[in-house]
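Supplementary Methods, section 5.1.

A reviewer requested that the exact input to the structure prediction be made available. We therefore reproduce it here, unchanged from the version used in the analyses.
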Amino acid sequence: MNDPLLIAGRNYRSRLLAGTGKYKDFAQTRAAIDACGAEIVTVAIRRTNIGQHPGEPNLLDVLPPDRFTLLPNTAGCFNAEDAVRTLRLARELLDGHALVKLEVLGDAQSLYPNMPETLKAAETLVKEGFQIMVYCADDPIQARMLEDLGCVAIMPLASLIGSGMGILNPWNLALIIERVAVPVIVDAGVGTASDAAIAMELGCDAVLMNTAIAQAQDPLLMASAMKKAVEAGREAYRAGRMPRKHYLASPSSPTAGLIGS
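The structure derived from this sequence is encoded token-by-token as follows.
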């Protein structure tokens, strides 16, 4: 762990966070999580059984909390009150678990974040002792506001949830990375491995994805590809790319001493 991801005081080897929805069954969910190497996995409390529905298949049977860091999220919430209530339930179901993902959506079509309600919910949850990783717009001002409230990670969208459109505004992401001290994790919009690599090359601390893996033609192969992309992008960022030269070519091989020169 010479380059760990630090979130809320805990180190993680993997910089790929994975969702658990949209797979054909729990067995495929676990196989994909193993293939991508994720240690933090999101769980939509309103859509997935983690004990609130006795007698039904339980995600915790295939993704046990002693092996993975569960990240309960508020997918499907459209106001602060519902989001707060959902995460209180998650904490109760998971024996006081504090690390959660907050998302408050603006509408059911775009799933774009409702930032006023997100800020309102974040303020309440931080006061109640939750460690908030927060889905938000790619707005550097509001990202700073969320950090100031006490959120432990900022998670701007690259493009709309489930769209697979990739990073549409790298400039805003770069501003957020520059201006906040907590981890910046791209959340939403990744479609393929190159999207994940670009996010990491920009300097993002991690990438969260679900649909890009779950709805690939071969989810397990895509999970493996995403793992490699995140690792390669992080290494490229740390290495520091060569400067771009728009008008001056520079040969890779030396020209001094060539015959006839």
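The mean pLDDT is 91. These observations are discussed further in the main text.
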